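pasting for ref
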Amino acid sequence: MADTASSHACCVVVPIYTTDLKPEEWFALKNNRAKLAAYPFIAIAPEGLDLTPLTDEVEFQDTRRFPAICFESSDTYSRLLTQAEFWEAFQDYEYMLIAQLDAIIFKSNLDDWLAKDYDYVGAPWLSGLGGNGLLKPANLQPLLQCDNEDIESIYTELRHRGVLNEEDRLVLDYRSKLRTLNFAGLNGTSKKDVLKALKHAAAAYEEFIGVGNGGLSLRNIASARDVLDSRRIPPAISLTSAELEQTPMVAEELDKLIHLQSIAEAGNESLVQLFLINTCLPEDLFWGELAELFLPEFKVAKPEVALRFSFETNPGLCFRLNKEQLPFGCHAWDLPKNRPFWESNQPGIRDLTTI
């Protein structure tokens, strides 16, 4: 391994739950090790897990062990990454790049991202998560009135454009259930009206709602520790109706935060610790969206910048929004809804289809 200044500034952290890796995970791990050969790779793994099957094949500089419960679910993993003990285990480094086994690195220019001095960078979230805006009342009425043949042709067209994916068929199921109810005054409507409604939904799909996914993410270690050590009680928080609609999970947790503020003030306690104990947020949602409440100087990349760092959901749309340039890397590439795009753009991934 090259002994460079960047090696000491940043480590690559790979969460390991098991050594029984799928071919896709082996491909990602070996690819990422080759792309980032100048950086130390550190495994985080459950206590007692024998990593020999991996370390015999891929070089790791070190392993950090944590209780096995931390790797049992996404919730316990999120708890781990919001505990001071986790960040203290990496205090010898300035940054860590978390690269889960379903993340792939395309470029070796990690130094460029370190120079940007962000505290957190991950793939941006698009409003297309969940219902993609298609379940808004303004869109439901024409959907309910359209016959099955028309709605299927519309969805097929929009999927071909990369606006929708197979998961959006859940909307069809939802619509089917709604149509069993008695909607007074609903007569037929035209295909043109439905296309117009879905055009608005497709535009909403391209709106960024935050940063960003933690599966491939760059983090400032000292800043994370500062957030968790913070005694700050943020001012009153309110969300607009549009924000509440787009980010219901954040809104629900902010309600808890508002309730906990008075408790923290009365007991001179750390609000951030009270909040993390009493909530069950995904850790990347906390770091990307809420950490700055406790440390205002915590610097998260803007969505347009984060798009150059990583794609996660709807990579075809992200590719277009990123001016048809691949990012530094991607996450969740092997999901059925994402894999066709990556197979068409990365020969190494395409070869896996023959395995």
